[in-house]
Amino acid sequence: MPILLYRIDDRLIHGQVVIGWGRPLGIEFIVLVDSEVSASEWEQELYRMAVPQAVEVVFADVEQARTSLTDWQADPRRGMLLTGTVDSMAAIRGNGGPTIPKINLGGVHHRPGRRQRLPYVYLTDEEYRALIALKEDGIEITAQDVPTTRAVALSELA
Hints:
single chain; alpha/beta; Fructose Permease; seven-stranded mixed β-sheet; two-stranded antiparallel ribbon
């Protein structure tokens, strides 16, 4: 099975990801892409505690994710890849990097410079332009907080 969900969520692993997405998709491994978390065993332990023991959690920085993505995509288990930022997801794809078929915008919360696009998605104009560039590269991008809600097309977030 390929990676079933590529999600941008600034909370990374939390209940909505594990229960809301992980259970219905039958997720067997999660790749958490964050440079700070990948360098901190303490933070890794905190995230592992939120995940059932049967689900493997892999911690990587952006460069590790970029170079390992095709291996994770070839893994026979059902996987999910999470980043906390638009920039991290864009950097994984990079210029001619590995293929990412679809990106889900989950919880991207308020920070200075961001404006509300949906109740759970706040983006700067620069982040929105980066998502447009990914879309123009052939990646389908939708916002959807949980699988039971309607997927909102990127064009609706303008």
